[in-house]
Amino acid sequence: MDWTVGNFLLTGQNKLQDHRRTRVANAYYSLFMAVGNVRGYATGAYSGWYKVFPFTFNSSCDINCANLKAAFLLDVIFIICTALHT
């Protein structure tokens, strides 16, 4: 999702052929990529997501599976919030 937002900023600004705006768009792209990488690492590093979303943990899905489902759910929520905000 972060790549999509950054790519939109790049392509939207390049249509005007203004070098300053292109540099600003590249800076925003880098910012979104950095935030996405940190957010992804932090989500994967935290092993207690099944406590935050207890409905992901059941008899057929152990702790690792529940954490993976919770990380996916967080990503979907983030995508929806970002899409609604823009």
Automatic annotation (TrEMBL):
Domain of life (superkingdom): Eukaryota
Protein name according to UniProt: Uncharacterized protein
